[in-house]
Structures are given as structure tokens and as C-alpha cells.
């Protein structure tokens, strides 16, 4: 502690303050400017056997290229310490309100379904930005992801091993997250070449863990293994993996006693999410080219999953509509209290298959709902709002800069300018511009969160 270091191309000298963690490649320290001017950073300092020339050159390319976006804790500057062998790099510090995905898996942190869907969206979008640069992450796992439980924002760490897509790599990935072809290459004593397609498989495993609290290949076959040694694990995850909910192979179903989580969570989610997991872990196992779920598909699915959340009128907990159900419903009763979920309030966007937005007291509409697929969850264009004098009357408030047109079933029409609201009433249509939404279901929304403020004016 107190070691002085200097960025390779910078002028500010830093000193180590405290060790934040240690991994297989090195230690992570908090560092502060020696003269007390400027922000603190995190420093990853490599152990001698990992401080190779290859690693230095790879880091140099990452520093020069810059981060794909702010979700990545990206190498900012290479650093050396006078009189000390080796090197490290500086990156931004992770704030305390971000929690490791490991804490989510251990139930130390229990985010809402909305938070999980938002985090899933952020992950899919983040890796899409990375892959669009011709890079791959190599080691997607819940050990490298951090989430903010309140709103689902994420940070992706350990980015120093990012490489150009398809190049030989010294890191194959984390056990249980590796694509089957990586495991098979290792067994054949071939140099693995992690790439975007292997990243896609690892991302699917991570998302399954997040939503099911379980691994997609750990079912009865795992339970029957007397000794889960390396050979057994290679078979289970690499050479002969069987999805626990495969529609064509029931040999590896979850055990009701040993594996309660996937059995409890699987039926809660809409069919469109389950279908993607089925594809990822059946066709996607041996067909990396055509079977794997793409980042853009996961991104759309996570956005749709957010939209499908409906709050139970009995206990207020989150449930899901199913936009592909003919009635726009899905589950008919709450998974927690058993209360009926029929006729939940919703907005169906015409002309966009599957775009059904559940209307709760905390629902917002964003650009991708009414302006196409331009995702921006920080720019709401509408919100569900309660009447200030009639608490049983709810409306959709125009937060955009455009005037809407509301149309009743008997063709009465009126303008809804910015700042005004249209009352939620069955079969009322709202023309947002190029798109039209139709209000359906019960018109009294519920919320398990703080009620929104505002008025219907």
C-alpha cells in the first residue's frame, strides 16, 4: 500500500490506497492522485506470470479504441510503478450501489422482475455494441457483471481480456458458461477460439441463470452423477448437454426436490421468453451459426418482458401478460397469492406484432413504443397518471412534444396536446403519430410502487 505509479502517457502520479480484490490474473487496488487533485481510480496490477508482452499489446489496443459505451469498466490508461516489475491499468471505480450478479444468485439481493428485465436489456445491448466493433468478451459470467437493484443499470467489468473476434486466446471462459464447442476444443487439446458466437451462448446461460436461478443443463442427469468430476462436467456441459426444458428430450428435467427454482420460475414467464431459451439450448448447442439467439433478439425480448409486467390486483406483486396470447393475457392467476389476473389493463400498439404494454400505475411509454425501435429508457413520452380528484380514474399523460389524437369506439375525436391526458377507457384508440395504440382491459391500474404524481388537467 502506498506504492507510487504513473500512467504510461499521463503526467499525474498516483499511489495505492487499499486493495479491492484479487483474482487469477492480479490484484485490484484503489488509487488516488499523489497530490490530492483529481478523482480516484481502480488499478488492476498483474501478477508476474500474467504481465506478458501480449497482454500489454492487447491493453494498448483497448485503451486506444476506447469503451463501446459507459456500461463497460474499460481500461483507460496503462500504468507502471518505478522500480517495480510488471504493469497494470487504470479504470473507473464501481460505485457501491452496484451489486455483483453473484449476490443476486445467492439471494443477498432480490431485484424485481422489472429490474431483471432492464438488466437483461442492458446486457444484450452492451454486448451488441461490443460485438459491432469486431470484438468478443471471452468470459461472460455472473462473476463479471454488476447490477443496480433499483433500476437495472449494469456495469461490465474484467474487460482487459476482450479480444478481436475469433483470435486465439489464453482464456477460454468460465466453467458452466463456456459454449460446448469451446469445451470440445479443450478436450481435443486444440487452442480454443472464443468469438461472438461463443459469447452469445454464454450470454444465454447468464440470462437463464438470472431469470430461473439455475443452470440450463442441470437436471436429473446431474443429480444421478455420483461424482461430479471433470469428465462428468465435460459431458454435462460440453459433449452431451441436454436442456432441462427440452420439448424433445425429457431425460434431464429438473428434480422437484433438488431443483425447485426452475420449476417455480419457468411457468411464470411469457411463452416468447421460454421459446428463446428453448432455442438457445437446443438448436443453439450444436448450431452456432443459425441456432443461437442474437443480441438484438434478446434486447427486443427484454423490452417486451418489461412491457408485459402487470401488477396483481390482490397482492400487488409483478406478473406477466403474454402479448402472443389471443386475449393478450397469459397467466390467469397470480403466481404468489392466486388472485385472478383476467382483463388486466393494457395498451396494444397496432401493426407491431407482440407489442402489448401492461398499464400499471408506474407505467411509462418510451420512443420504441410509439416511434419504432429506437430504445431510450431515459426519455419517457407518456406515463400512466391518476386523476387528482377522482382516484379511481386513470389516464395516459402526454409527455412528448407532439399532439395525439384520441378516438372513442363511436368515432368521437379530440386532441391530446403535450401535458394533457386521455382517460384510460376500453377500446379508446390513441394516434401517437405514425402509430396507434388501443386501450383494453380493466381501466383501473394498480401499482406496488410509489404512486405517480401529476394530474389529468
Question: Describe it for me?
Answer:
With 457 residues, the protein is of the alpha+beta class. It has three domains: 88 residues, Phosphorylase Kinase, domain 1; 199 residues, Transferase(Phosphotransferase) domain 1 (Transferase(Phosphotransferase), domain 1); 96 residues, Tumour Suppressor Smad4. Helix content is 25%, strand content 20%. The longest helix has 19 residues. It is globular and about 80 Å long.
List the helices and strands and how they pair.
Elements: E1 4-7, E2 14-22, E3 26-33, E4 41-46, H1 53-65, E5 77-80, E6 88-91, E7 99-100, H2 101-105, H3 113-131, E8 135-136, E9 145-147, E10 154-156, E11 163-164, H4 180-187, H5 196-212, H6 220-223, H7 230-239, H8 260-265, H9 271-280, H10 283-286, H11 295-308, E12 309-311, E13 318-320, E14 346-349, E15 356-358, E16 364-365, H12 367-370, E17 382-386, E18 394-398, E19 404-407, E20 413-416, E21 421-423, E22 429-431, E23 436-440
Antiparallel strand pairs: 1-2, 1-5, 2-3, 3-4, 4-6, 5-6, 7-9, 8-11, 9-10, 12-13, 14-15, 14-23, 16-17, 17-18, 18-21, 19-20, 19-22, 22-23
CATH C-level name of the largest domain? Mainly Alpha
Biggest sheet overview: 6 strands, antiparallel, barrel
CATH topology descriptor of the largest domain: Transferase(Phosphotransferase), domain 1
Whole-number count of domains: 3
- pLDDT averaged residue by residue: 89
Distance between the termini: 61 Å
Point out poorly predicted stretches: 445-457
Overall strand count: 23
Oligomer: single chain
Question: What is the general shape?
Answer: globular
Strand order of the largest sheet: 1-2-3-4-6-5
Amino acid at each position: 500500500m502506498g506504492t507510487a505509479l504513473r500512467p504510461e502517457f499521463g503526467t499525474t502520479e498516483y499511489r495505492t490506497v487499499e486493495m479491492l480484490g484479487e483474482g487469477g490474473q492480479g490484484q485490484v487496488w484503489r488509487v488516488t492522485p499523489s497530490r490530492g487533485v483529481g478523482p480516484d481510480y481502480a488499478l488492476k496490477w498483474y501478477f508476474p506470470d500474467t504481465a506478458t508482452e501480449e497482454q500489454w499489446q492487447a491493453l494498448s489496443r483497448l485503451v486506444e479504441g476506447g469503451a463501446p459505451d459507459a456500461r463497460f469498466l474499460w481500461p483507460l490508461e496503462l500504468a507502471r510503478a518505478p522500480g517495480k516489475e510488471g504493469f497494470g491499468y487504470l479504470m473507473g471505480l464501481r460505485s457501491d450501489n452496484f451489486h455483483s450478479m453473484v449476490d443476486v444468485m445467492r439471494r443477498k439481493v432480490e431485484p424485481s422482475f422489472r429490474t431483471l428485465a432492464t438488466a437483461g436489456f442492458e446486457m444484450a445491448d452492451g454486448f451488441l455494441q461490443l460485438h459491432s466493433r469486431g470484438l468478443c468478451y471471452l468470459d461472460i459470467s455472473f462473476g463479471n457483471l454488476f447490477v443496480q437493484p433499483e433500476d437495472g443499470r449494469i456495469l461490465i467489468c474484467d474487460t482487459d481480456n476482450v479480444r478481436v473476434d475469433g483470435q486465439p486466446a489464453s482464456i477460454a471462459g468460465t466453467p458452466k458458461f463456456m459454449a460446448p464447442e469451446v469445451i470440445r476444443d479443450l478436450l481435443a487439446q486444440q487452442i480454443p477460439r472464443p468469438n461472438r458466437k461463443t459469447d452469445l451462448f454464454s450470454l444465454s446461460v447468464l440470462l437463464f441463470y438470472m431469470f430461473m436461478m439455475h443452470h440450463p443443463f442441470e437436471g436429473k442427469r446431474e443429480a444421478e452423477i455420483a461424482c461430479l468430476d471433470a469428465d462428468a462436467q465435460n459431458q454435462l456441459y460440453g459433449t452431451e448437454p441436454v436442456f432441462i426444458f427440452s420439448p424433445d428430450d425429457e431425460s434431464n428435467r429438473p428434480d422437484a426436490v433438488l431443483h425447485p427454482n426452475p420449476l417455480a420460475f419457468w411457468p411464470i414467464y411469457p411463452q416468447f421468453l421460454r421459446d428463446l431459451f428453448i432455442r438457445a439450448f437446443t438448436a443453439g448447442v450444436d448450431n452456432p451459426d443459425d441456432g443461437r439467439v442474437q443480441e438484438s433478439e434478446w434486447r427486443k425480448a427484454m423490452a417486451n418482458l418489461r412491457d408485459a409486467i402487470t401488477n396483481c390486483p390482490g397482492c400487488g406483486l409483478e406478473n406477466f401478460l403474454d402479448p402472443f396470447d389471443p386475449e393478450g393475457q397469459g397467466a390467469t392467476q397470480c403466481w404468489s397469492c392466486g388472485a385472478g389476473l383476467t382483463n388486466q389493463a393494457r395498451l396494444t400498439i397496432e401493426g407491431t406484432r407482440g407489442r402489448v404494454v401492461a398499464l400499471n400505475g408506474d407505467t411509462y411509454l418510451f420512443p420504441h413504443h410509439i416511434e419504432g425501435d429506437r430504445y431510450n429508457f431515459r426519455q419517457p413520452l407518456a406515463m400512466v397518471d391518476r386523476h387528482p380528484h377522482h382516484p379511481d380514474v386513470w389516464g395516459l399523460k402526454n409527455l412528448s412534444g407532439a399532439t395525439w389524437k384520441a378516438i372513442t369506439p363511436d368515432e368521437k375525436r379530440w386532441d391530446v396536446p403535450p401535458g394533457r391526458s386521455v382517460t384510460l377507457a376500453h377500446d379508446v384508440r390513441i394516434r401517437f403519430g405514425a402509430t396507434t395504440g388501443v386501450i383494453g382491459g380493466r381501466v383501473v391500474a394498480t401499482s406496488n410502487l410509489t404512486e405517480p404524481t401529476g394530474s389529468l388537467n
